[in-house]
Amino acid sequence: xxxxxxxxxxxxxxxxxxxGCSMNLDEKVMIATELESMGIDVIEAGFAAASQGDYxxxxxxxxxxxxxxxxxxxxxxxNDIDAAAEALKKAVSPRIHTFVATSKIHMVHKLRxxxxxxxxHTSRAVAYARKLADSVEFSAEDAGRTDPDFLxxxxxxxxxxxxxxxNIPDTVGYxxxxxxxxxxxxxxxxxxxxxSVELSIHCHDDLGLAVANTLAAVEAGATQVECTVNxxxxxxxxxxxxxxxxxxxxxxxxxxVIDRIDTRQIAAVSKLVETITGFRLPPNKAVVGGNAFAxxxxxxxxxxxxxxxxxxxxxxxxIGRDEHRLVLGKHSGRHAFENHxxxxxxxxxxxxxxxLSFSRFKVLADHKKRVSDQEILSIIxxxxxxx
Length: 387
Ligand code: KIV
Ligand code: ZN
Known about the structure:
This protein has helices at residues 25-38, 52-64, 78-87, 104-111, 115-132, 148-160, 177-190, 210-220, 241-250, 252-255, 266-277, 298-306, 334-343, 351-367, 373-386; strands spanning 3-4, 6-9, 42-47, 69-75, 94-101, 135-141, 165-170, 198-203, 224-227, 257-258, 294-295, 325-326. With 387 residues, it is an alpha/beta fold. It has an 8-stranded parallel beta barrel with strand order 2-3-4-5-6-7-8-9, surrounded by 8 helices. A two-stranded parallel ribbon has the order 1-10. A two-stranded parallel ribbon has the order 11-12. Zinc ion binds next to loops.
């Protein structure tokens, strides 16, 4: 039987950490409502101690959302954890998410703590958080560059102190998919408690590997994936929710996992986040880009007209878009051209009219990236007038 993978969305927290991408309270509630409706398991609403605005947004999201868990981030200090717990008071299913850096680089330069001190800090923070919430997630910040044996100790310490979810962040997007697979496999072998505690993955996209790394973690047995809508987030961003979810859905027989996401809401959520943040999607963005379901090459268009399966591994309808777009450009073939003009209402051109219209269209398309319907109509008009 396929196992369950939980989807943790951090658009409102890590996503908002994208330079130039802040959202106001109403916008955050709007996004959270959409995320809840699409079936996200956990919505991370903010970093409670970071600002008054973050605190208020967590409170508002916690009051509004009923069927997803709501998480708030906290450094491993009593003040931060208190702020998170307080902000989450109205949540039906609150989660405190606390973290400590565990890589040598962070321990030496940022925390100035020894391994022993980091273990004690972890234990104290998790035990304290656990007094305030039943669901406590612990993240080993920069786990991707942490010595795996020390990471094992950190995970076991956090679990012993009460953590119910352990998150493994590749904070700086350093790992490759094979390394992630090995690390998660190693942790599953050496932390037997993972049989009863969630094992989560959180990847950044500095090398463009966040989605691939997240999927590698799923293959190795991760039970929760952390991602953001449109992949927004610190620096190059986080693993893109829509890409992870559609990979798991499209390749379900391969991954053998299920989630609760209603994929038909993906396009709408993506658009909402794009509009609110002002972060425009490139046309070739996987799954939600403007060209994700567009076909211009003649051979592709011919194939699509015969059967959509020839060039599409998922349908636009699956993500809530309503059409395939056969784009007419210089690569388009006569078959697609005929279909297109038929859709514009021109079914009855004779052979000569069709030949001439198509050849004039090709001349124009050679000079322009896209030929508009208006231009196609005027070609047909002029051809039909004389032939
Ligand atoms: O990237 C990271 O390490 C984080 C943690 C706080 C989970 O965002
Ligand atoms: Zn992060």
